[in-house]
Amino acid sequence: MEDMKKHLGQVDVAKVKLMVRVEEDYENGKLSFDEARAMLEERVGSCAPAEIALAEQMFTEEDPDQCRKEDIQGKLALFEGILQTGMEGLPADHPLSRYVQENEACKKITLEIEDLVQYPLIKNQWIELYDRLIQVKRHLSRKQMQLYPVLEQKGFTRPTTTMWTLDDYVRDEIRDARALLDADDDDAFIARQQTIVADLRDLMAKEESILFPTSLKMITPEEFEAMKSGDAEIGYAWLDLDVDHRALEREQKAASSPDATFVDELAALLGKHGIATGPDAELDMKTGKLTLSQVNLMLQNLPLDISFVDEHEIVKFYSDTDHRIFPRSKNVIGRDVKNCHPRASVHIVQEIVEKFRAGEEDEVDFWINKPGAFIYIYYKAVRDEDGTFRGVLEMMQDCTRIRSLEDSRTLLTWGSEK
Question: What is the pLDDT of residue 348?
Fold first, then answer.
C-alpha cells in the first residue's frame, strides 16, 4: 500500500476515505444519488483517477469478481464533474495511446454488432466480424503481460487480482459466442450479442476512466519506453503497425548501456584474473563448454517453449522463440508466478509447486485439443544433486503435426520436397 502511495505522490488519505464512505453509503441505500453527489461536490471537490484506484486498493475488500460486478457507469455518473480523467498530449506511439486507439476500433465493432443484430442472420457477415473481434485477445494479453506487472511492482495489485478476471470473462464470452456461430445455433448466438457489447463497453470504460490515467500517474516515461518492444512482440489489435520488436529491443539496450570504454576496461581487468566475460566467453557446462551466445541460440531454436520458475516461485526465464504458443513479455521476469495466471487457475499453479516442493510428485502434463491444434504442456520439478527443490521447468509444444504422422520415414526428405 505504501508503495502505491509513494508512486502517486502527495495523497489526501482523509479525502480518499470519504470518497469510499460516500460511495458505499450510496450503494447501500443510505444516501440518495443527489445526496451523495452533493456531499462529493462539497467535501471532495475534485479527484484524480489514481485516487479512486487508491481508494479501492486501500479500503475495499478484495474480490476477484469485483471488477466484473462493479457498475462503472453508475460510478462515472456519481463522480461526473469531480473525476478528472484527461490523458491529453500523449504521442501516438505511447503504450497507453495504443490501448486507446484499439478501444476506438473496438467501439466501432460494437456499433457494427448492434446494427447486424437487427437483420436476418447471414453467417459469412458474422464470421468476418468475429474474425476481427477476436483480436481483442492481443489487447488483453498486452495488459496482462506488460501493464499489470509494472503496476503490481508499485503496489497497485487490483488490476492483477480483479481486472484480469474481467478480461478473461470478456475473452471467453467472445470465444463461446463464436462456437455457437460455428455450430449454426443462430438464436443462442444472437441472444449473446447484447451482453457482449455491454461487457466490452464496460471494460473499455474502466480502462479509460481509471486504469490508464492511474498508469500514466504511476509509471515513469522510461518504463513506458521500455514497454514498447514487449508490446510490439505480443502485437496489437486492429492497428496496422509495422513494428520490429527485436530492433526496438536493440535500440533500448543500446540507449541504456553503460559507457563502452568502462565495459571494455572491466572485461580486461576480469580477464587478467581468469574470469571470462562477454557473450563469446566459454562457460563450463556439465557435459561440455558453450558460450552464452550459443546457449541463447540453442534455446531460441528449440521447437518448444521453455519457462523456468525458481524455488521462491519467481519467474526467472522464458525462451524467446519465434513460434511462441502463448504470449510472453519481459515484464513477467521477476514476478510471482501466481500473478502471471488468471485467478481461476492460480490454485492449480499452487498445487503443482507445493507437490513438487514436498517431493510428492516430479512431473505432470496437460494437453489442449482444439480444432486445428494440439498443444502439449509438461511441468518438471527441478532438483539439485542433493535432491533439494530448485524450481519448476515448463515445456510447451504445438504437437499438431507430430500427432498426424503415420508409418515411418527413414529417407532424408526436405520440407520443399514434401
Answer: 92
